[in-house]
Amino acid sequence: MKKRIVTTVLLAVAIAAFATPIIEFTGWNNLIESSPDIIIARPTGTFSSTSINSTNHPMATTIVDGGMSYPIEVITVLKGVTKPGPAQLWSSFSSRLGELPHQGDMYLVFAGNHGSGLTNCWYNAIEDYRIVFIAPDIYSGAWTNALAGKALKEQIKMILKCRLGSLNEQRQKDQDEEKRIEEGLKELNM
């Protein structure tokens, strides 16, 4: 019975994804206003190529045309009527990132809630820009307190600033590594 319910939910997600048009990014203000749900969520496990292809694995998922459905835990609801707890997320971000979600990852998701209730629902965030990676160490209890009482746009601005800082730090590390590798190739070609 449980397997039939899971299969039905995954099939419904796949069908809805085909009916979901891909919309061009038109700016953050428009995204905030047009997204019925804005959440902070994390995957509830670690994926592998085996888990995706196995219907017996607890992290089994559905992949259709580059989009995938997988279980998440909603940590915080910034906008919308749902509650924190288990849910499903339909997205294509794994094809953009070139990897599967990992336990401990954290995301700011601009989504549409397509569930029938306030819990155990699923979210659609198929466009790449609808999911913003948040480093796990950024989102902590202190971070939750920093967001509390702030207007929605201010909360999102704070998260985007932190993400930009993480990207700049990673870019610098990548540039340093690139320089070391180039120097190594020059040195080895003497």
Describe the protein:
The protein is α+β, with helices and mostly antiparallel strands. The chain has one domain: OB fold (Dihydrolipoamide Acetyltransferase, E2P). Helix content is 42%, strand content 25%. The protein is built from 6 helices and 7 strands. It has helices at 2-19, 28-34, 49-53, 93-97, 141-147, 152-188; strands at 37-43, 62-64, 67-79, 85-91, 106-113, 121-125, 131-134. It has a 5-stranded mixed beta barrel. Strand 3 (67-79) and strand 4 (85-91) form a beta hairpin. 25% of the residues are buried.
Distance between the termini: 68 Å
Strand order of the largest sheet: 1-3-4-6-5
Structurally, how many domains make up the residues?
1
Oligomeric state of this protein: single chain
CATH class: Mainly Beta
Please outline the major beta sheet. Answer: 5 strands, mixed, barrel
CATH arch. level architecture:
Beta Barrel
